[in-house]
Structure formats: structure tokens, C-alpha cells
Amino acid sequence: MYQTEYAKKAVESGGLTTVAVRGSDSVCLVTQRKVEDKLVDAASMTRMFKVTPKIGCVVTGLIADGRSLVAQARQEAFNFEYQNGYAIPCSYLARRVADIAQVNTQHAGRRVMAVDMIFCSIDDEAGAQLYHVDPAGHYHGYRATAAGSKFQEAVSLLEKKDTDSMDLETTIQTAIMTLQTTVSADFKPEEIEVAIVQSGSGFSLLEDAEVEEHLTAIAERD
Amino acid sequence: MLPVEWSGEEWTGLDGAPGIVYDLGCNIYSPDGRVFQIEYAAKAVENSGALIGLKCKDGVIIGAEKLMPSRLLMESSGRRVHPVGMHAGIAFTGYAADGRPVVNAARQEVENYHDYYGVDMPPHTLAERLGHYFHAYTTYGGYRPFGLTTMVTSFDEVTQEPFLHMIDPSGTQFRFHGAAAGKSKQAAKTEIEKLNLKALTCAEALKRISLIIHTIREEEKDKPFVLEAGWITADTDWKFQLVPKNLRDEAFEWGKAEFDKMDDDDDDDED
Description:
- With 222 residues, chain A is α+β, with helices and mostly antiparallel strands.
- Chain A has six helices and ten strands.
- Chain B is α+β, with helices and mostly antiparallel strands and 271 residues long.
- Chain B has six helices and twelve strands.
- Chain B: The 26S proteasome consists of a 20S proteasome core and two 19S regulatory subunits.
């Protein structure tokens, strides 16, 4: 199906890469942030979204398509909780978003959404969760995953790591370090967005100061 | 039959021209991942009058260059800047006919929100809704995208300040300190970056917008324009107000005079 291939091309040609790592009791999402326009209010240029207080996602690809899917994901999550009386599990949310993505590939006259969405949460029963949905409507659970222009390189690096036993700090630093190596950059806090979800608390974005601490720790280790 | 042939890998025009089939609808990506229909919609904006929005010290102002193709047209017709509810305003540039449904949709949204929640729609929500609205029209083969870039300014009850958002034909929207769209938007952005927005009042910004528009106009030196503007400031009690005609006329004349002066100075330098 060429259109899904071309849509994936669109994701890659955005020039940005995202890395996500699932540790033993936390998940970390890291993505590049390039604000080239001085006149933009940089706080509004975010690709991290809270779908529910406990489930977050990062969008890689065409941001308008991504925002649309996030809005639909939020709707799905709300409907689930309303119908069933308990919060939607991350795996089910990912499946619903994947179904929405799939419909676009099968209906004539519809356009495939050019976004890779990576969802994370801490599930009451199953622990740390990380799911990746692609434009074709494929979705899988992962221990670590990547998306965007350099996702292949990132994935090769991640495959070598044993993430299951990582604590929060290691999870975050592994994610950031992988992204740094993949795009061959020495990040400043403003150049990346880092979000985490850990047992006991919901999905949240790290402040620049916290990101700085992790970057320093990584640099000192090298 | 379409003038295309299959190269074995992709469709091309009869003389090898690329992309000839991939622009047939919004539902088609090209092999390099572009949606041509959205790019063409952006072209419609590029050929249209300038739109400039500034978040200043005491509020937000949006100014539009409304080109008047004929002297028979009434100045007030073909409005580009519209109030949306009491606390928000919208301005657009591009394919003007597309502006009307967008303004109507925005007004519906704001009214519904107020009916439902009892408070004014927050700026980021209004911008997000407009973004989704624009985006929806880029996802179906049977529709075309809006040929508009829209700026919306709206007052936030929580933080007690107005904000400026801009939405492009793809539905992408961001919040801005300063924004420009339309013809010569690069030149306009360069001029905006020279301004110290944190120290500028809206009244002063109105004049600056007039000067920027006069400066960036080139080939259209012959086609007259009307300066339309709207603002949300402390003076308007944080309601969206269309800038009164006398102030706009003043700003227009000031901008013209300043530009003529700069132009003369340039000519003198050349001598």
C-alpha cells in the first residue's frame, strides 16, 4: 500500500527523532525540539500530550494530523471511562487509535495520518506500558522504541540495552543518551522535550532544570 | 485519459514531469511524503494581502492589508477582520470566500462553549478548534483545504491577558508573540523582529503595522489598500474591538509618510 509508505516518508522527512524507553516502573519519552521562528511562543510548540492524567503520548510527524489524533484519543479515553467506569488501559487506547488510523487506509477518499504516536502509562495491573502506533495502523507494545527521521539508528542502539531493570533515572538518561547519540548532538535543555510517567504519579513533562541535571549527569559519565 | 504514464515505480507526466497525479486530492501523498493540495492551498495565501499580528505590552493587535482592486468598491466591504464573540477576534488572508464559513464556524464554537460551560472560550481552545476544523478539510479526497491563514486573538480569563494564535491551511496552529502571513511574509517577519514588542503599546503598534505594510508592498504599488485592524487591549476593557476608522486612517497616513521619507532617504543615498 503505497500511501502508507508515503505517509511514513512524511514522518521521516520532518527531520525530528523521538526515543522512548520503558524501565521497571517508569517510562520516559524524549523528542527533539526545534523552534526556528523567533516570533513563535515556544511553549505552544510541544509534541507531548496528556491523553488522560495517567496516559501520555508523543507525536512525531505532521503536527496537525497529530493534534487531530490526540483529540480523538482523548475522546476515546473519556468514552471508555464513562461506559466502563474505570480508566482506559494504555494497550486498549493504543488499539483504538490504531483502529482509527487503519480506517483511513481502507476508505477511499481518506488521507492516512502522517504521524507516529507513542503512548505510555503505568497500568494498575500490568505495570509500565509503552505502545507505538504507526500511520498504517500497526500497533505494538515495546520495551523501547523510536520514531522519526533517525529511528533506525535509535532502535539499533536501544536493542542492545536491558531496559527491564532500569530505575527512573537510568530510564531517563538512557532515552536522552540514545537520542543524543542518534542525532549526533550535545543537547541543551531547550532542544529536547522530556516526559515521564512513573508509579504513583501521572504523566508529566520535565522542567528545563531537571533536564539540565540529567544532561550534566550524562556528560559527566562520559 | 490522464496525461500520465507509469514509470515502473511511480506515476509521472508524459514528458517525465513528476507529481502530476499526486496532487489530485487531499487524500494522496506523493512518494516523498508531501500532500500537494495543502501546499497549493498555502500558495493561495502567498498571493494575498499581508496579515500582521503583534502581542504588545498592553494587548494584542491584528492588522490586515485589504487590497482594493477597484475604486468602485466600498471601503468597508470585503471585511478581513471579524469579531468572534465579545472576547475574541479573527482575521484571515488568502482566498477570501473561504473566510466566511470559517468565521461562522468560529462564532458557533464560541457561542456553544459559552452556553455549555458558562465562561468565555479560552484562547488555546479556540485556536485548537479552528486548527481541527482546518485540518478536517485536509483529510478527505472530496474536499479541498481552506486557502487561508487565520490569526485569532482572544482574551484568557484565567491569566487575564490576550493571546495571539495563527492557523495555516494544514491546520497547524501555534501561539505567537508576533506573526505575519500573506505576500512578503518573510519581509514582514524581518520587520517585526526589529520591534521591541514588550515595550510597544497597541496604539503605537497600529502605526508600526501600517509602516510595515507600506514597506513590504512592491509590485502592488499601484493597487490601493485599506488598513483593517482589530485589537484587545486594556483600553477596550479587554473586549475585541475593530479599530475605529479615524485611528486607522491616521496610522495609514503616518505609515505612508514614514515610508516615503525612508524611500527618499534611500534615493538620496543612491545619489
